[in-house]
Write a structure and sequence with these properties.
Blueprint (H helix, E strand, L loop, with lengths): L6 H5 L3 E4 L2 E2 L2 H10 L6 E5 L1 E2 L17 E9 L3 H5 L1 H16 L19 E4 L3 E4 L2 E12 L5 E9 L24 H19 L5 H10 L7 E6 L2 E10 L5 E5 L4 E4 L4 E3 H7 L2
Helix pairs in contact: 4-5, 4-6
Protein name: biotin--[biotin carboxyl-carrier protein] ligase
GO molecular function, one term: ATP binding
Catalytic activity: biotin + L-lysyl-[protein] + ATP = N(6)-biotinyl-L-lysyl-[protein] + AMP + diphosphate + H(+)
Length: 274
């Protein structure tokens, strides 16, 4: 299909299984693990017919967009494995910066000023361009017969098109003027993953990952809202803590630490989280 691994990824022992169209690269990766695959396997496709997002939401992948899943098999604790999503965000941000260095972003959520060449990371699993969603990341796992965990780290990027019927701004690389394709992006991603996974170092380098992630965090210091247990929590996005939980400073000054949820910023927070 024309997908290629970067030389650094090949040297590090990664393998590639490339497709034109699949049901779900994440589902395929977990199937490979159950069939005995040892991991370090990238599965890529230009289209998914039954891709998934967080909380079971459908993630449509028109032909020409990138669907990529990295299968990891090992003995990682679930909490440590969950932080791989932050590694993926950094790797994708690095790859995008490498191949779209002069991107002019013309869309911004809440009417905010746009920035040049800026890809931001939205907790926990999105990559934004000027406030508009460009990519999403989904981790799924399964317990194997030998007691090890298989982790499917799925990455979906709007390369040639973005969804129109979504309640948030979205954008594609084509809309940013990028003239390459999903294969070019994957080549850069497979290279950037090697560096960022080495920094993470099976969780031992999580503090460095956290610091790099915060440098690119969308909405840091801004007003946010998040729905939790039947209520909407509002406050200021303070940081992410040492476990990569989302930290909000509420109006009374207290800190709220959130492990999972959908975050909204500014005007979008008021409009969508009530």
């Amino acid at each position: 299909m024309g997908f290629r691994l970067a030389p650094s990824a090949i040297q590090a022992g990664y393998r590639l299984e490339a497709h034109d169209s699949v049901g779900s690269t994440n589902a395929m990766a977990l199937d490979r693990a159950r069939d005995g695959d040892p991991g370090a396997l990238w599965i890529t496709a230009l289209q998914q017919s039954s891709g998934r997002g967080r909380r079971g939401r459908q993630w449509a992948t028109p032909h020409g967009n990138l669907a990529a899943t990295l299968l990891t098999v090992g003995d990682l604790a679930p909490g440590t494995a969950a932080t791989l999503g932050f590694v993926a965000g950094l790797a994708l941000s690095d790859a995008l910066t490498a191949i779209v260095p002069e991107a002019r972003v013309a869309i911004a959520a809440d009417g905010a000023d746009t920035r040049r060449g800026r890809f931001e990371l939205k907790w926990p699993n999105d990559v934004l361009a000027g406030g508009a969603k460009l990519a999403g990341i989904l981790l799924e796992s399964g317990l194997l017969a030998d007691g090890r965990f298989a982790i499917a780290l799925g990455i979906g990027v709007n390369v040639v098109a973005h969804p129109e019927d979504v309640p948030y701004p979205a954008i594609s690389l084509r809309g940013l003027g990028f003239q390459g394709d999903a294969k070019d992006l994957f080549l850069a991603l497979s290279d950037a993953w090697v560096d960022n996974s080495r920094l993470w170092n099976a969780g031992r380098g999580l503090q460095q990952v956290r610091e790099r992630w915060l440098e690119r965090a969308a909405g840091l210091g801004a007003q946010v809202s998040i729905r939790l247990d039947g209520r909407v929590a509002r406050g200021t996005f303070e940081t992410i803590d040492e476990d990569c939980r989302f930290v909000i400073r509420e109006a009374d000054g207290s800190l709220l630490k959130v492990a999972a949820g959908d975050v909204h910023f500014g005007a979008v927070a008021s409009a969508q989280s009530d």
